[in-house]
Amino acid sequence: MGLELAGINTTSSGHVRVNERLETSAPGVWAMGDCAGSPHFTHISFDDFRIVRDNLAGGKRSTVGRQIPSCTFIDPELARVGLNETEARRQGIPYRLTKISMLAVLRTRTLGETRGFLKALISDDDRILGFTGFGVGSGDLLPAVQLAMSVGLPYTAIGALTIAHPTFSEGLQSLFSASPVRAT
């Protein structure tokens, strides 16, 4: 494309090289979404847009520490945010695990959709490190968990909520009311 003629560097994978504010190597040129090598999700491209928009208006937004939620709409759906067990072990991050069957989420019984599980990795200081849901409605549970993660709430804050019955969100109360077990 001749990006080098405009002073825009690319990565070895062919993406436009950007910094954490999504600025390219050419002054005044920004890149976002797939071309900048951001995770290939529509919601991440939209967040990239918000970062660039705000920075163009004088803001100081960046991609550093950004949560990358994902939801795969298979049957049942698979949703996750934060670390999974493999990533935590690879990074040497100690964690405790809490996990329940979707059968424990009473709303799944009313729908006859009890396949799957909810699980979360909990840090030594009780913060939520990651969440995975594999079951009906799992993607809709992500925002509540993300909010707790982004403000550093202990997992017990969700477990202590009074949540409407019967809802999928009630499963979070069950999950975060359980005592996490130290991973081996």
Give me some keywords for this one:
alpha+beta, 6 helices, 2 domains, 6 strands, elongated, Enolase-like, domain 1, six-stranded antiparallel beta sheet, 184 residues, 29% helix
How far the N terminus sits from the C terminus, by CA atoms, comes to: 50 Å
> How helix-rich are the residues, as a percent range?
25-40%
Write down the CATH class of the largest domain: Alpha Beta
Mean pLDDT, to the nearest integer, reads 95
Order of SSEs, N→C?
A: HEEHEHEEHHHE
What is the total domain count? 2
What's the number of extended β-strand segments? 6
- Low-confidence regions: none
Largest sheet data:
6 strands, antiparallel
Number of helices: 6
Radius of gyration equals 20 Å
Strand order of the largest sheet: 1-2-5-4-3-6
| Backbone structural class | alpha+beta
Strand residues, percent: 15-25%
Morphology call: elongated
At CATH level 3, the topology of the largest domain is: Enolase-like, domain 1
CATH homologous superfamily placement of the largest domain: FAD/NAD-linked reductase, C-terminal dimerisation domain
CATH architecture name of the largest domain? 2-Layer Sandwich
